[in-house]
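Provenance

Sequences were taken from public entries as deposited. Structures were produced by running a predictor on each sequence independently, with no templates supplied. The record for Ribosome assembly protein 4 from Massariosphaeria phaeospora is shown for reference.
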Amino acid sequence: MATVVPPPSKRVKRERAEIARQQQDVDSTIPDGTVRVRFVDQATGESGNIPVLTVPLSQASTKNLEILLNELKEQGDDRIPYRFFPDGATEALGDREDLYHALVKPGKVSAESEVVLQYAPQAVFRVKAVSRCAAAISGHGDNILAVQFSPLDSSRMASGSGDKTVRIWDCDTGTPAYTMKGHSRWVLAVSYSPDGAVLASGGYDNEVRIWDPTTGKQIGSPLKGHTNFITSLCWEPYHLQEEGRPRVASSSKDSTVRVWDAVGGRIDFALSGHKGSVTCVKWGGTGLIYTSSHDKTIKVWNASTGTLLHTLSGHAHWVNHLALSTDFVLRTSYHDHTRKVPASPEEKLAKAKSRFEKAATINGEIVERLATASEDCTLFLWTPLSSTKPVTRMTGHQKQINQVCFSPDGALLASAAWDNHVKLWSARDGKFLFTLRAHVGPVYMASFSADSRLLASCSKDTTLKVWDMRTGKLKEDLPGHKDQVFALDWSPDGERVGSGGADKQVRIWRN
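Predicted structure for Ribosome assembly protein 4:
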């Protein structure tokens, strides 16, 4: 009878786990030798005061390089996870890769030469890919055209439909919470205020309505003034609001944008200057309003005076959509992954402001980047605070582009188009990274997870797809809808994805 080795004791297991956590085991297949590594910040392209280091090949794993970089940046106590991009590569090194097997052995670099590693911080928390439909909720009587989660958490989601109603869903139980009636035609846009206290909706009846999402009751009378249907809604950033006076901007096919006092129920001012339908409005964290239009231009307005500052031109056809690099922090204001809500209004304001400034600061300056998507199959990247000339023009899509969005960390840009593809770009310089191919119909929307590691997309082909941002590969295929999927949102806390479309069902997806 063979002798059975006794299982390791708890103490041995604990010691082994601690060694594995601190440092990956040395791979015995890696030869002796060293490699010179230069760390370069991907955002600035500079090394700063980090020296060029000689690292043993056997120790040059991604995890060990991360520990090393944190020590060099004197943040060993509060470690930040990093992604490493070998110079010129679009794909980051995998979590379990090392420099020998990834670069030296395939002959991409020699052990004698200097390896330049661009590093980019990742979110401290990790969002799991949604993989199953947790609820398919019926209730709407027509196409679902807009969905949005509350910034508070993923337990509440609003949807707007062709059945003239706005509904709020309880995502914990998969049941309808409120049905809000009042619109006389299709509801095309719904938008939660950054603190989650009020909800705005607009649609084909030319009116904007303000609702209390906790009771399902309408606040005040409808906001009338537009002479054609509402195309999009955007709230004033929380850190810019006057206390008790949140404002919302609505864009319309009547070529104007109107800014409303949501609680007072009055118009503040109208922005007129576009010569065609205004397709999208975004309210930036520096007090500027950005609008895109069928007149091929993007206009930048001062939100306090209502005056036109710049007209950005370059597109050869209608501009369909806008995205700001700070969209995620402006949408969530003082709500972050810690789920700790500040106690006083002053603390809420300070937290919302500091989150915006942290997200927008590059090299000590506030930089709010703007991406625009057009029917001319191209995207432009702008920095409107410093220049009216585009940073770059991004080409590659074969058909018109529906939507564009920045990742929450401001590093990536995704564009969804009628050519069945989602394309991924670097948000810093507009460099093309990946084409995400799997949809067999036009892609209507894409939405990033809160940690920027995943992207969900919805399409005319009735499916949702979840993609891995490090490799550009398909992570999850989510069939279930019985008709095309128009609307999609990934909750700010990363827990759920909500979708809706022509099958009149809201679906909630979880991991």
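The mean pLDDT is 89.
Residues 34-121 form a domain with the Ubiquitin-like (UB roll) fold (CATH 3.10.20.90).
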